[in-house]
Specification:
179 residues; single chain; Alpha/beta knot
Length: 179
Amino acid sequence: MRKLENSELERKSIKDFKNSEKTPLIIVLDDIRSLHNIGSVFRTSDAFLIEKIYLCGITATPPNKEIHKTALGATETVDWEHHENVLEVISNLKKKNITTLAIEQVESATFLQDFQVEKNQKYALVFGNEVFGVSQEAVVLCDGCIEIPQLGTKHSLNISVSAGIVVWDLFQKLKHLNS
């Protein structure tokens, strides 16, 4: 086994990324404090050809040196917008027939492994503040909630880890459904 060189990875150019068919997933980050978490979500979004990221509330925006440290250029590839009010973003996505899903621990949440994607459906995943999570108002407005099962003593995961887990799972399910 030999580790591949960067030149062997056949990475897309920014132009190729912009012109690629995107995974029908949108990320909504609401009141994310950590610039490193924001950058990490951009990098994950680039890896899985995510359509767009909405940065809401206090969530910082590019260009930003600290976001760039973890995004490593993904802020140049993944489309993004900033909005003050996450509730307006969720409402507007729903008007476009995009299924909105809060990633949160709530009553009657669907565990991630049990969530089934639908063919030709686009999904928006709402991730909340590192301490307070997705606001109750946003949870109520969303079409549903997905919970990542956790079996240890802690009851939460880092936002960038949660985003990576959920995006990977839904990417796999969407890929399988459309193959």
